[in-house]
């Protein structure tokens, strides 16, 4: 489990679920036959989107990205397929390594926290699942972007 692999899996997953949601929206709004695609792909994409954003923050801290690169990584989750572009973009600029940089003696608390998460994978996985569930629940309360 390298930063590059974790980030790439989430970037591709986010892009694929975006495409599924777009296909569901096409069937619902253009073909007009069913909204099942949106009902299924919408929540799946929401979970993938939130997971991608959390992993982007984690990898950004570990890999020492600038604030601008982090923001670009997060914003890339909004337009369809841009997470794949961002993954390629940041790797081409040496922003994704095959090893984690965070250590228990890292100079920042954020990097030490990333090291703790990497050293306690079971607790980190549970915390990640709880965070995704909580943020997904919050998103469902707020409603879709167009519901204004």
Major sheet size, sense and barrel closure: none
Rg (CA only) = 17 Å
Low-confidence stretches: none
How many helices does DSSP assign?
6
Mean pLDDT: 93
Structural class determined from secondary elements: mainly alpha
**What general form does the structure show?**
globular
| Helix fraction bin | over 70%
* Distance between the amino and carboxyl termini: 40 Å
Oligomeric state of the chains? single chain
**In what range is the share of β-strand residues?**
under 5%
SSE order, as H and E? HHHHHH
The strand count comes to 0
How would you characterize the overall build of this protein?
This protein is mostly helical and 148 residues long. The chain is built from six helices and no strands. The radius of gyration is 17 Å and the shape is globular.
How would you summarize what this structure contains?
This protein has helices at residues 3-31, 36-63, 67-75, 82-92, 109-119, 121-142. It has 148 residues and is an all-alpha fold.
List the helices and strands and how they pair.
Blueprint: H1 3-31, H2 36-63, H3 67-75, H4 82-92, H5 109-119, H6 121-142
Helix pairs in contact: 1-2, 1-4, 2-3, 2-6
Main features:
mainly alpha; 6 helices
């Amino acid at each position: 489990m390298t930063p590059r692999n974790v980030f790439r899996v989430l970037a591709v997953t986010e892009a694929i679920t975006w495409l599924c949601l777009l296909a569901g929206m096409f069937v619902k709004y253009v073909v007009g036959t069913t909204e099942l695609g949106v009902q299924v792909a919408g929540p799946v994409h929401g979970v993938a989107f939130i997971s991608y954003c959390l992993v982007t923050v984690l990898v950004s801290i570990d890999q020492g990205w600038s604030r601008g690169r982090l923001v670009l990584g997060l914003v890339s989750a909004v337009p369809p397929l841009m997470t794949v572009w961002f993954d390629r973009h940041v790797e081409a600029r040496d922003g994704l390594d095959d090893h984690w940089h965070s250590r228990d003696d890292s100079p920042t608390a954020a990097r030490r926290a990333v090291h703790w998460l990497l050293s306690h994978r079971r607790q980190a996985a549970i915390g990640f699942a709880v965070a995704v569930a909580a943020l997904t629940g919050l998103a469902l309360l707020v409603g879709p972007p167009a519901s204004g």
